[in-house]
Amino acid sequence: MADKTPFTEIRLRAGDVDKSANWYQQQVRSYARHLTNPNELYQSDLGKFATQLEVGKMYLFEYDPKTKADLPYYDNFPLIIMVDQLPKGFSGINLHYLPPLIRAKLLDKLMPATEMESDTTLRSSWPQIRNFSRFPELRGAVKKYLSQQAGKMYEINPFNWKSAIFLPVQQFKGGVGPQEIYRNTMERPERKRRNTIGGF
């Protein structure tokens, strides 16, 4: 039977020391690499199902895009930091579109002074985050999602954010490999506002 508390083990090993991104990546490989599908993750100590959604929190969820036939590729199991509530859904930074070490650097930028408590959200406001001169990584990773196309929202325990970003759970569809997706995301040119975060 697979260990259902790998993230508690990682936190205990980290102690009160601020570990590097490489350290968390190695710990996930050692303790949580077997968690590769939604059901396994939902039964672990990574987080809990959300009763309500909040901007600034991190979520995993299954997603079936309404316009998938028109998309070159998409992620069936996004890991997002929610940045906006929308009339029919929400938008978020899908961390899976970024290389793992860039995800870690982005977290360090977004939460430099965050106190890790059970109700932690990112202290940065979305108007600050969308300043692409400060956060160029975001331009190609911010996506819109329709609530009716999303499964249950699984909220990541803030203590586990630095582990969650290294989990190999992205489910890209469309026949494009992760490395090409990372390259496309990071090289994406600035676009007009109406097209900045499309992809329902």
Give a quick rundown of the structure:
This protein is an alpha+beta fold and 200 residues long. The chain has helices spanning 6-14, 21-31, 38-42, 100-110, 126-129, 161-164, 178-187; strands spanning 47-49, 58-60, 74-75, 79-86, 89-94, 142-146, 154-156, 172-173. The strands form 2 sheets. The protein has a 6-stranded antiparallel β-sheet with strand order 1-7-2-4-5-6, with no helix packed on it. A two-stranded antiparallel sheet has the order 3-8.
Rg: 16 Å
Q: Largest beta sheet, briefly?
A: 6 strands, antiparallel
Distance between the termini: 38 Å
Helix and strand run: HHHEEEEEHHEEHEH
Number of domains: 1
The rough form would be described as globular
Order of the strands making up the biggest sheet: 1-7-2-4-5-6
In the predicted model, the low-confidence regions spanning at least 5 consecutive residues are: 192-198
Number of strand elements: 8
Strand content: 15-25%
> Average pLDDT, to the nearest integer?
85
Protein structure class: alpha+beta
Helix content: 25-40%
